[in-house]
């Protein structure tokens, strides 16, 4: 799908970093009590800065997210046809899900069938004036330009290996992962657990690991023995990449 221009109109909204103007309880030294939260990324990516995505990320509405299959896809987004638009476009990677709210009667941008990008405020402000809040956009899939190789973070336990695949170039969205331990010549089919976390119950501790990763355009990249025989849970290993 990369490079194919979509003419679908979508909406973009800045994440709200609003401060409440209602009265707050002032405690010692002028500090006020409030709440903050950390949204655990629905794609499985963890620290977006450490993992090379930076602020150039977007959360996708239900219609675009496709149960996590679109995680890792890259988009070029432009504000479209309002007075609030700035010139130019942004390039972002899909790293999260914008959850629907079916009990909300209005402004439910992340509900199906709406196509919506939830951007960080700084990315939003590159394409539109902040106070617009939400603007129509046009977008297209673009190739993902990533530095270095695909990264494989190995998690789980000796009976259940979970591999997070990130920093994927090319079209970016992984559709299939196979793993192979050095003591066999058979590739083992992994299944998607959630987002871009892939799992197998094969017992591969003590073997060096190879991966075959296929993306939505049907291209496959093989990375042989990326994790050495003494790989460990929590370890991150770098393979080859799509170009
Ligand atoms: C969903 O929308 C309703 C109605 O606007 C609101 O009360 C509720 O807090 C929303 N739920 C979430 C999880 O945002």
UniProtKB/TrEMBL annotation:
It is a peripheral membrane protein. Residues 159-239 form the Expansin-like CBD domain. It is found in: Secreted, Cell wall; Membrane. Residues 1-24 form the signal peptide. Gene3D superfamilies: Expansin, cellulose-binding-like domain (2.60.40.760), RlpA-like domain (2.40.40.10). SUPFAM superfamilies: Barwin-like endoglucanases, PHL pollen allergen. Keywords: Cell wall, Cell wall biogenesis/degradation, Membrane, Secreted, Signal. One of its GO terms (cellular component) is extracellular region. It comes from the Eukaryota. Transmembrane segments: none annotated. PROSITE patterns: EXPANSIN_CBD, EXPANSIN_EG45. GO terms for biological process: anatomical structure morphogenesis; plant-type cell wall organization. It holds the Pfam family DPBB_1. Residues 40-149 form the Expansin-like EG45 domain. Its main location: secreted. Causes loosening and extension of plant cell walls by disrupting non-covalent bonding between cellulose microfibrils and matrix glucans. No enzymatic activity has been found. Belongs to the expansin family. Expansin A subfamily. This is Expansin.
């Amino acid at each position: 799908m990369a490079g194919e221009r979509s003419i679908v109109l979508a909406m973009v909204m800045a994440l709200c970093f609003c401060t409440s103007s209602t009265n707050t309880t002032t405690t010692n030294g002028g500090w006020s009590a409030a709440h903050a939260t950390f949204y655990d990324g629905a794609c499985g990516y963890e620290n977006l800065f450490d993992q090379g995505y930076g602020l150039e990320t977007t959360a996708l509405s239900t219609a675009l997210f496709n149960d996590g299959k679109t995680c890792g896809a890259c988009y070029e987004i432009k504000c479209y046809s309002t007075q609030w638009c700035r010139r130019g476009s942004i390039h972002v990677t899909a790293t999260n899900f914008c959850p629907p709210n079916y009990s909300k009667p209005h402004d439910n941008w992340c509900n199906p069938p709406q196509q919506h990008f939830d951007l960080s405020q700084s990315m939003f402000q590159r394409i539109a004036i902040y106070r617009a809040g939400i603007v129509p956009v046009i977008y297209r899939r673009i190739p993902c330009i990533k530095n270095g190789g695909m990264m494989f973070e190995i998690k789980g336990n000796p009976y259940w290996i979970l591999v997070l695949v990130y920093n994927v170039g090319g079209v970016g969205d992984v559709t299939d992962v196979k793993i192979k331990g050095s003591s066999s010549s058979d590739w083992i089919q992994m299944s998607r657990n959630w987002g871009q976390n892939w799992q197998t119950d094969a017992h591969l501790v003590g073997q060096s690991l190879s991966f075959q990763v296929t993306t939505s355009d049907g291209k496959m990249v093989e990375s042989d023995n990326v994790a050495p025989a003494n790989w460990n849970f929590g370890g991150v290993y770098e393979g080859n990449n799509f170009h």
